[in-house]
Amino acid sequence: MEHFIYILYSETRDRNYIGSCADVNERLIRHNAGAVLSTKSGRPWKVVYSETFSSKIEALKRELYLKRMKSSVYLEDLIRKYLQGNFPIYRD
User: Fold this and answer.
1) Tell me: the pLDDT tens digits for 31-48?
2) Which of 7, 21, 52, 83 has the most beta carbons within 10 angstroms of its beta carbon?
3) Across all residues in the chain, what is the average pLDDT?
4) Residue 42 gets which letter from DSSP?
5) Is residue 69 within 8 Å of 77, Cβ to Cβ?
6) Cα gap 43→22, rounded to integer Å
7) 3-state secondary structure (DSSP) of residue 44
8) CATH of range 3-83; options 3.40.1440.10, 3.40.50.2000, 3.40.50.300, 1.10.510.10
9) Cis peptide bond prior to 88, omega within 30° of 0
């Protein structure tokens, strides 16, 4: 079953949020409905990046890797390339 990692952006808080799930669209609805405590104050959120993985374990590894990247420059570059359609394919 496919799993995804995603990065959300909140203009309200000027912050990114990194997560993983099986359905990005459904998860975004939950974030914007205030059902997720950690993102409730930043509504509305929009998806600015996502990657697809063949397993939940692969997606969780990538999520943890991105969360450990303390460099906002790295994430901004990743998002910029994604939005321009020129994004790297992640390989473990």
Assistant:
1) 999 999 999 999 999 999
2) 7
3) 91
4) G
5) no
6) 21
7) coil
8) 3.40.1440.10
9) no
**The two structure tokens encoding residue 49:** 């990046």
Residue 15 neighbours by CB distance under 10 Å: 14
Domain boundaries, the chain: 3-83
Strand ranges, E, within 11-86: 15-21, 45-53
C-alpha 20/C-alpha 62 separation (Å) is 9
Spatial neighbors of 32 by CB under 8 A, at least 6 apart, are 43, 44, 45
Task: Tell me the whole-structure pTM to 2 decimals.
Answer: 0.87
Structure-derived torsion over alpha carbons of residues 73, 77, 79, 82, reported in degrees to the nearest 10: -170
Number of helices (H), then strands (E), in the chain: 3, 3
In this structure, the number of other CB atoms found within 10 A of the CB of residue 85 comes to 6
